[in-house]
Design brief:
This protein is mainly β and 610 residues long. Helix content is 2%, strand content 38%. β5 and β6 form a beta hairpin.
C-alpha cells in the first residue's frame, strides 16, 4: 500500500532537514519558506501580463472614517533568477504602542542561496543570510529598511514560518519566532547528500536604537524527540519517537510581566516513520521576557487514528491539526486557536475530508497546563478550504489558519475573538487527469471556484462558549467566483474590531486566457483552467464589539493576479498575512505581486472616529 502523506510537506520537511538533495533544478516543498522550484520563475512564463483588466469590476469601497495610507514595499527590489530567488511572502508585523516603530517579517526565498542549503546552480545569499526576512520602519511605515534576515547567532539559521510580537518586561522588546536549522551543513561522503540539522524553533529578541534596529540574541527549543535523533533510519516497528516542529506562532504580554508563549504543530512519529503523525498542538512558555523557555505542553493531542505497530493501516489516517495562533492575557490567560481537521487518509472519513473544526484550547496558569487537550472547545464547524485554494496558489492544498485576539483593557476587557474562513459549500478535490493537450507535465487538476466567506465569533467567558451565529465580515458572496480567506482579527479597548483578509475574484482575464500553476516540487503536476486569481487585501471594521461589520474597505491600491506573478518558491504567496493595532491605526501587511515578483507590502489604516 502506498504510504499516505497527509500534507505534502511532512516527507519533504524531513528530507530538507535530514538529507536535502542538492542536484541542479531540484525543488523541495518545505511547508514553511519553501525550497526553490526549477529555473522556471513564472507560473505563466516570464513577461506574462499581471494585474487586473480595466473592466473587471473590482469595487472601490470606501468609508469616511477610514483612511488607507500609502502601500509601501517592505523588501528591497528582488533580483531576477540567476543571482536571486523570487518570493517574499507569509507576512507578520509588530509595532510599538504609537505605531511609529514597526518591524515586518516575511519568508525570504533568498535564504536558499549559500550554506546550509546551497542552492544549485549558485545564487547570491542575503547579508545576513536566512529564510526569514524582515524590514523595519522608524517613521510609521512611510519607508522601510530591508534588514535581509536576523544575523546568525550561535549557528541559528532561520527557516521560515515567521511570527512577530512586541512586549517583554520593558514593553519595547521585539520577538521574532521562526523555525530554525544549524547553518553548518554536514557534508556526507559522495554520493550521499548533505545533512541539515534541525534546531526546532528560534526566537530572536531585538530593539530599536535610534534610526536602526538591532537583534541582540536568540533562543532555541526543540521537540524532546527531534528528527535529528533518528536521521536516515529505515522504517521500524518499535515506534521510537522522531518528531518535527512546524508552523510556530508567538504571543507576548504587553503589560511588562515578561510572559509569552509559542504555539506550534509537532508532527510526531507514528508506526516507525519519522514525523508522520497528523499534528499535535504544543506550547512553550516564558516567564522572564524570553531569557528561557519551558515546555512543551500539549494543547491538542495528536489524532492519528491507528498507531498499532504492524497493522496494515498503521498511521495511514488521522485528523489534521495545523496552523495554530496564540493570544495571552494580563493574568496568565493563554488561548490557542487552530484548525482541527479535515480527516485524511484511508479509510476515508464519513465527511469525505470536506469539513473541519476551528477549536480553541485555554490555559489559566500561563500555559503550564491546558484544559482538556483531548477535547478543545469547538468554535465552529467549517467547510475547509483545503481543496479550494485560489486558482493561482501554487500548492495543491491550503491551510484554513484561524486567528485569535484577546481584549486586555477597556469596556470589553476579557472578550476573546476568533476569525476564520469557510467555503460556502463542501469542496472535494478534483481528480488528477492526463493534461489536455499533452504537456511536459503529464497530470493536471482542474480549478475549483467555490466561494468562501470570513466570519468572526467571540466569547465572554474565557473561551467556553461562543457567539452564534458567527458574524460575516462582508456581504454574502455568490456560490462561485469570490474567495475570502486568511483573516487577521484585532480588537481594541474602545470596542473596535478589525479584520484584514484576502479576497480573490476567480474570473476570466482576456490577457491571460489560461491560468497554469505548477504545484508540486518536481514540476510534474499542475492546475489549469480559464479563471485567474485577482487578489486584493481588504479591511472590515466593527464598531459594536464584533456583532456587525461596516462595508469592507480596499487596503491594497493595486490588484495582484496570482496566475501571472513571478516566483520560484512554494508556496508563492505563503500561508498567512498579518496585521496589528497601534493606537488609532491598524498596520496591515500582505504578499503582493503588483510589480511582478511576489513582494511584501505594508499599509497603515487610520481609524479616526472609530
Amino acid at each position: 500500500m502506498k504510504r499516505f502523506r497527509h500534507d505534502a510537506f511532512v516527507g519533504a520537511l524531513v528530507a530538507i532537514i535530514v538529507t536535502l538533495s542538492m542536484s541542479p533544478g531540484f525543488s523541495q516543498d518545505t511547508g514553511d519558506v519553501n525550497e526553490p522550484s526549477s529555473e522556471r520563475f513564472s507560473s505563466a512564463g516570464q513577461g506574462a501580463p499581471f494585474g487586473l483588466d480595466a473592466d473587471s469590476g473590482v469595487p472601490e469601497l470606501d468609508s469616511q472614517d477610514i483612511e488607507i495610507g500609502p502601500n509601501v514595499r517592505v523588501n528591497r527590489a528582488q533580483i531576477l533568477p540567476g543571482a536571486g530567488l523570487l518570493g517574499r511572502s507569509e507576512t507578520t508585523v509588530a509595532a510599538d504602542e504609537d505605531g511609529q516603530h514597526i518591524v515586518v517579517g516575511f519568508n525570504n526565498a533568498q535564504g536558499f542561496c549559500g550554506e546550509p542549503f546551497n542552492r544549485q546552480p549558485p545564487c547570491t545569499p542575503g547579508n545576513p543570510p536566512g529564510l526569514s526576512g524582515y524590514g523595519f520602519s522608524t517613521d510609521g511605515g512611510r519607508t522601510f529598511t530591508d534588514g535581509s534576515a536576523p544575523q546568525v547567532i550561535d549557528h541559528v539559521f532561520t527557516r521560515g514560518d515567521p511570527w512577530l510580537d512586541r512586549g517583554g518586561k520593558d514593553r519595547r522588546t521585539f520577538f521574532y519566532a521562526n523555525l530554525a536549522v544549524d547553518d553548518r551543513a554536514i557534508i556526507n561522503p559522495a554520493p550521499a547528500p548533505r545533512t541539515i540539522i534541525d534546531l526546532g524553533v528560534s526566537v530572536h529578541r531585538g530593539h530599536f536604537r535610534g534610526d536602526s534596529f538591532v537583534w541582540h540574541d536568540v533562543h532555541v527549543f526543540n521537540a524532546p524527540n527531534a528528527v535529528n535523533l533518528c536521521a536516515n533510519r529505515p522504517p521500524r516497528t518499535d515506534r521510537t519517537p522522531c518528531d518535527l516542529y512546524d508552523k510556530e506562532a508567538i504571543a507576548v504580554d504587553k503589560a511588562g510581566r515578561g510572559r509569552g508563549v509559542v504555539s506550534l504543530t509537532n508532527f510526531i512519529e507514528g508506526c516507525g516513520f519519522a514525523a508522520d503523525g497528523f499534528g499535535q498542538i504544543e506550547v512553550w512558555r516564558t516567564t522572564n521576557g524570553g531569557h528561557s523557555w519551558l515546555g512543551p505542553v500539549i494543547a491538542g493531542r495528536d489524532l492519528t487514528f491507528n498507531t498499532i505497530p504492524g497493522s496494515s493501516t498503521c498511521g495511514l489516517a488521522g485528523t489534521l491539526q495545523q496552523s495554530s495562533a496564540p493570544a495571552v492575557g494580563p493574568d496568565g490567560e493563554v488561548f490557542v486557536a487552530w484548525q482541527r481537521g479535515p480527516d485524511l487518509g484511508v479509510p476515508p472519513s464519513s465527511t469525505g475530508a470536506v469539513t473541519a473544526q476551528i477549536v480553541v484550547a485555554r490555559s489559566l496558569d500561563g500555559g503550564a497546563t491546558f484544559d482538556h487537550p483531548d477535547h478543545p472547545v469547538v468554535v465552529a464547524t467549517i467547510n475547509t478550504m483545503r481543496n479550494n485554494p485560489p486558482v493561482g496558489f501554487n500548492r495543491d492544498r491550503i491551510n484554513d489558519h484561524p486567528r485569535i485576539a484577546f481584549v486586555t483593557e477597556g469596556r470589553l476587557m476579557g472578550r476573546l475573538y476568533v476569525a476564520y474562513a469557510s467555503a460556502v459549500a463542501p469542496v472535494t478535490a478534483i481528480p488528477l487527469v492526463p493534461c489536455s493537450p499533452p504537456a511536459a507535465t503529464p497530470l493536471c487538476r482542474g480549478q475549483r471556484l467555490t466561494s468562501s466567506q470570513v466570519f468572526v465569533t467571540f466569547s465572554d467567558d474565557l473561551g467556553l462558549t461562543w457567539s452564534s451565529p458567527p458574524t460575516p465580515v462582508a456581504s454574502a458572496p455568490p456560490a462561485t467566483g469570490l474567495k475570502r480567506w486568511w483573516p487577521v482579527v484585532t480588537a481594541a479597548s474602545d470596542g473596535t474590531v478589525t479584520v484584514v483578509y484576502y479576497e480573490s475574484q476567480e474570473m476570466l482575464v482576456s490577457t491571460n486566457p489560461v491560468c497554469t500553476v505548477f504545484f508540486n516540487r518536481l514540476g510534474t503536476v499542475r492546475r489549469r483552467g480559464p479563471a485567474n486569481s485577482l487578489v486584493n487585501t481588504f479591511i472590515a471594521t466593527s464598531q459594536d464589539g464584533g456583532r456587525s461589520f461596516d462595508p469592507p474597505v480596499l487596503v491594497s491600491t493595486a490588484t495582484s493576479n496570482w496566475c501571472t506573478s513571478l516566483w520560484n518558491v512554494f508556496p508563492n504567496f505563503g500561508d498567512y498575512i498579518g496585521s496589528v493595532r497601534a493606537e488609532d491605526r491598524v498596520l496591515a501587511t500582505w504578499a503582493d505581486s503588483r510589480n511582478g515578483p511576489v513582494d511584501t507590502f505594508f499599509a497603515p489604516v487610520g481609524l479616526e472616529g472609530r
